Amino acid sequence: MKHYVDGTGAYLGQFDAAAAPAEAAEVPGGPAHPGQVWQAGAWVCPPAVLAERKLAAQAEVDRQAEAARLRFLTPGAGQAMEYQRTAEEAEAAIAGGAADFVGYPMLAAERDAAVAAGAPSPGVQDVAATVIAERDAWVAAGALIKTTRRAAKLQIAAAADAAAIDAVLAGLTWLQPQ
User: Are 152 and 61 a contacting pair, CB within 8 Å?
Assistant: First the structure.
């Protein structure tokens, strides 16, 4: 079986020589990626196909980045608001030297959860320090994930062909919790 293209370079498929369409031209192999056309002795992605592949690859990078984030965080917009509010309360409690949980309902919830899990009741400053340490650890992890994501998307945007896009996707390495 041999590979054939039409007069525009569009791939027609594999045929026995006798079964090939009359106007088909034989080429040494099939395209590596859907949508590629045969031009000047090589398979290339037309600009529109390459643009579509870039968009799809960038969406895949975003999907992988979110999966990496979710190894460190609980999903959901409400959960994100909870994290933000808890961190704000922790910063305020530390800055104001708070001695109790009055006015800090999210920090009180952290304390109550610890007690419900059988731990001794921590003080407001201990809870606040733990929240800030956890937030800072997430910021460091999130920054590494962002670097990987943004670099990949920029490399994909600059890719000259489908092989370069595939190389970016194949080379992605995401941060893992330790």
Answer: yes
Domain that holds residue 40: 2-44
Structure tokens at 57: 């690859």
Query: Same domain for 86 and 12?
Result: no
- C-alpha span between 111 and 121 (Å, rounded): 6
pLDDT at 178 over 90: no
b/e burial code for range 86-124 (CB count within 10 A of at least 16 → b): bbebbeebeeeebeebeebebbbebbeebeeeeeeebeb
Write the single-letter amino acid at 154. Answer: L
Among residues of the chain, what percentage have pLDDT more than 90? 89
Q: What are phi and psi of 99, to 5 degrees?
A: -105, -15
Identify which of 157, 124, 173, 143 has the alpha carbon closest to the alpha carbon of residue 54.
157
Rounded distance between C-alpha atoms, residue 27 and residue 4, angstroms:
6
DSSP string, 118-168: T-----HHHHHHHHHHHHHHHHHHHHHHHHHHHHHHHHHHH-SSHHHHHHH
The pLDDT score that the predictor gives to residue 18 is 83
**Total structural domains within the chain:** 2
- Please tell me the predicted confidence (pLDDT) of residue 19: 87
Same structural domain for residues 64 and 24?
Answer: no
The pLDDT-based confidence of 165 (bands split at 50, 70, 90) is very high
Same domain, 39 and 69: no
